[in-house]
Specification:
The complex is a heterodimer of chains A (299) and B (308). Chain A contains eleven helices and ten strands. Chain A is of the alpha/beta class. Chain B is an all-alpha fold and 308 residues long. Chain B is flat. In chain B, 36% of the residues are buried. Chains A and B meet through helix 3, strand 6, helix 4 and helix 7 of A and helix 8 and helix 9 of B.
Chain lengths: 299, 308
């Protein structure tokens, strides 16, 4: 496999030595290979942690998402892109069963997390959401102190241990500790938009999830805060698998390892047009529609 | 230079207001007049009562507040009314607040969004509009009879009165609490569920604390309404005229009772002219009690707000 399939920024990060040292990529996509933390292995060759197979999602009788099969690689960033209304957010919310909260919705197909069917009768959606955290479009810290925001999840789960330490490490991982270390008692709402979003990320990782879903996390932020979040995501993927919905194609190109391009069919149901390693989607897509979208000709 | 100033003049002319916004002024005037009308009515009412009642209060001081009812105007006081109203307020709070708030939580957070829920919701609103005298009849038919059967005196006691008032304000408590819960931003709910909180945890740790100030305001306003009600209490057995109280707790809850608005109603009907001034004085006491209740609500609300 030629080195050019790596996103340009990855080459810069790792240096050519890493690329040369990259093991022969196994081309068969099966799930028996262990997830690799070697960032140089392209997302398409990493074992998935979440697998969506032939997923259909309905709001009442309206089918919002049809026949989606996506395997989400472990410790990589997967971006869902596509025009407004194509079901990206809906699809994202099926992964941690947030859509259960909306009445009259129905899902078909299977979503598996480590081979467990997330929609099996015995599965508790509350537990699912603890393992698969979520960050929302608009920063939504609780009207509580910064400390209490981060400690909220662990407290609910009956965390017995060094809560101060957990809060600190979560804030450090969210690259917020230095900003807030002296004002942990202040309201989370006193922070700037970008800081609030990082607080929400800290809050999500305080419950030690494996997967973090991000629903357009930067759409309410200015460019500088957006870049900070993207840098943060690059750090977080060492420990977490990230799925991000974004309207911003540059963001998908910059920040993600794998990109799923969705579009709306004639019946307004969202479907996957193409999915591949991000660099392939943006440099050598197989579908004309993908090329038109990523080059800004529609959407 | 001259061309420039011509242009500048044209710009300033075009920016000049040419039109007098008559409709706008008229509308502002109407708004202001409505406000002044309301304030004036209130001022006249309170001023009138102050003018009549204040002499009694200054002359007799605390003795008026601590004396029991009497047919002699120079001795009559409102003590039993204050005790009765206070006891009613406690009973109503204990009964109506928990049931009303819990009902609101169920309707807003748990009930499935279907026709039955909407039907119930609309009818609770209708109940809030039912005249209070109807609730009085309900209290007579249900609670007074119940206590008669149970052998608690003749059934006309504080408990029947308190139950009647509790049922009367229950719809109000439910509606205002539901509004307060609905006003909690959905992003807060989502954040809670997204972090792996159960419904009960979301309600307890996020929704109720967020809605608490609104719920508190609504419930205390409902309580003020209950404290001012006369008709349902007359039907539910409050005593018109004077009576003696034994002073024991059994007497308080099992025996005859009255309340401030009942005393006002009773004295207003008395033939002796001296009772006109006493009526106004009793009204002032009732107003003071209501204002006190509202002040407590505002204080509690500001405390809750600060915690967030």
């Amino acid at each position: 496999m030629p080195a050019t399939i790596l996103p340009p920024d990855r080459i810069r990060e790792n240096g050519s030595a890493t690329i040369l040292a990259r093991p022969e990529p196994p081309f068969v996509t099966t799930d028996v290979r262990p997830a690799s933390d070697d960032a140089a292995i392209p997302a398409s060759h990493v074992a998935p942690v979440v697998r969506l197979d032939e997923v259909h999602f309905y709001y009442g009788s309206f089918r919002a998402v049809k026949d989606v099969t996506i395997h989400i690689p472990t410790h990589r960033i997967t971006a869902l892109i596509g025009p407004s209304g194509c079901g990206k957010s809906t699809l994202l919310r099926t992964i941690n069963r947030m859509n259960d909260l909306i009445p009259n919705t129905r899902i078909e197909g299977s979503i598996r997390f480590h081979d467990e069917d997330l929609y099996a009768a015995y599965v508790d959606p509350v537990e699912v959401r603890r393992r698969i955290g979520m960050v929302f479009q608009k920063p939504n810290p609780f009207p509580k102190s910064i400390y209490d925001n981060v400690a909220f999840g662990p407290r609910l789960m009956g965390f017995k241990g060094d809560l101060d330490g957990l809060v600190e490490s979560s804030l450090r991982r969210a690259a917020l500790w230095d900003d807030v270390r002296d004002k942990l008692k202040q309201s989370g709402l006193s922070l700037s938009g970008g800081q609030q979003q990082r607080l929400c990320i800290a809050r999500a990782i305080a419950t030690e999830p494996e997967v973090i879903l991000m629903d357009e996390p930067c759409s309410a932020l200015d460019p500088r805060a957006t870049l900070q979040i993207e840098e943060l995501m690059a750090q977080l993927k060492e420990n977490y698998t990230i799925v991000i919905v974004t309207h911003n194609m540059q963001q998908a190109a910059r920040a993600s390892d794998r990109t799923v391009f969705m579009n709306m069919a004639e019946d307004r149901a969202g479907y996957v047009v193409e999915q591949d390693d991000t660099v392939t989607i943006f440099t050598n897509p197989s579908h004309q529609m993908t090329e038109d979208y990523v080059s800004g000709r529609f959407g | 230079m001259s061309a420039h100033s011509v242009t500048a003049g044209a710009v300033s002319r075009s920016l000049e207001g040419k039109r007098v916004d008559i409709a706008g002024y008229v509308f502002t005037g109407i708004l202001l007049a409505s406000l002044l009308f309301t304030l004036a009515l209130l001022a006249i009412l309170v001023g009138d009562q102050l003018q009549r009642g204040l002499p009694v209060l200054t002359e007799r001081g605390t003795e008026f507040v601590t004396s029991p009812l009497s047919s002699r105007p120079d001795r009559a006081g409102v003590m039993q009314g204050i005790v009765g109203s206070a006891a009613l307020a406690v009973i109503v709070s204990i009964l109506a607040f928990p049931v009303g708030i819990l009902t609101a939580v169920y309707l807003e957070e748990y009930a499935p969004a279907n026709r039955l829920t909407r039907f119930i919701d609309v009818n609770i609103r209708n109940l809030a509009g039912v005249p209070s005298v109807v609730y009085g009849l309900l209290g007579l038919a249900m609670f007074v009879s119940l206590f008669q059967v149970l052998g608690v005196g003749n059934g006309r006691n504080l408990l029947s009165g308190g139950l009647t008032l509790a049922v009367l304000i229950l719809p109000l408590v439910i509606i205002t609490s539901a509004e307060a819960i609905r006003a909690v931003p959905s992003t807060i709910r989502e954040a809670g569920y997204g972090i792996g909180a159960s419904r009960w945890q979301v309600v307890r740790t996020l929704i109720l604390p967020s809605a608490a100030p609104g719920i508190l305001t609504g419930t205390v306003l409902a309580l003020s309404r209950a404290l001012g009600e006369t008709a349902p209490l007359i039907l539910a057995g409050a005593v018109l005229g004077s009576f003696s109280t034994g002073g024991s707790l059994a007497d308080l809850f099992g025996g005859p009772y009255t309340a401030l608005p009942i005393i006002v109603f009773d004295w207003a009907r008395k033939p002796q002219d001296e009772f006109r001034a006493l009526t106004s004085a009793a009204i002032l006491v009732l107003l003071a009690v209501t204002i006190l209740a509202n002040a407590i609500a505002i204080y509690l609300r500001s405390r809750f707000d600060r915690r967030w």
